[in-house]
């Protein structure tokens, strides 16, 4: 009986020792780590489409060129083309002289005129700013005057050998330099003109009181 109790006690002690060796570890009370996801990439701002320029108001002219109803780039081409056209100086019925803008060192500010035309009211007249070399104008007018000026000739009878011959009277003419230079510059500013007629008056020595008269290209 004593032996049986001793064996039972030994078995109980062995079981207690084994249970102590296999005890479960203590559980942690801290929350699990959280992972932060990166924010989504920002989309680039969407820019509004560029605004399309409106056509120029109807009836607007730039330097005498009709640009109403045209888009600005079309108006620029039309004015530049008209400005590049040569100006014709009509000396008389048999003599004409072509004058290019480069001969006077002239340059037109077409972009500035088109900017004005874009905001002009219908039917507005927009001036074309043209810069010229005054030195070239004076030089050109002086050279032109030498070829145009003419002294008057009286009617008379002359002998050719023994045969008389009548010489008809011929009026003289003189180009007025300052008005002529101003007329050339005005002709480049107003490109509705394609010819400048030099018109004399009726005095013995013809002074050209009105040395330029602008004629429209359609006439």
Average residue-wise pLDDT: 76
Sketch the topology as an H/E string, one letter per element: HEEHEEEHEEHEEEHEEE
Helicity range: 25-40%
Widest sheet, order of strands: 4-3-11-13
Rg (CA only): 50 Å
Specify the CATH class of the domain at 61-150 and 160-216. Alpha Beta
Number of strands: 13
Number of helices: 5
Per DSSP, what share of the residues sits in E-state strands of 2 or more residues?
A: 15-25%
Named CATH topology of the domain at 61-150 and 160-216? Ubiquitin-like (UB roll)
Search tags:
Ubiquitin-like (UB roll); alpha/beta; rod-shaped; 219 residues; four-stranded mixed beta sheet; disordered N terminus
Kindly describe this structure.
The chain has 219 residues and is α/β, with parallel strands linked by helices. The chain has a domain at 61-150 and 160-216: Ubiquitin-like (UB roll), CATH 3.10.20. It is 32% helix and 23% strand. The protein has helices at residues 2-21, 72-84, 110-118, 134-148, 177-189; strands at residues 61-62, 65-66, 87-92, 95-99, 107-108, 125-126, 130-131, 156-160, 163-167, 172-174, 193-199, 205-207, 210-216. The strands form five sheets. The protein has a four-stranded mixed sheet, covered by helices on one side. Strands 2-1-6 form a three-stranded mixed sheet. A hairpin with a 2-residue loop joins strand 8 and strand 9 (163-167).
Short description:
By secondary structure, the chain is α/β, with parallel strands linked by helices. 32% of the residues lie in helices and 23% in strands. The strands form five sheets. It has a four-stranded mixed β-sheet, covered by helices on one side. It has a three-stranded mixed β-sheet with strand order 2-1-6.
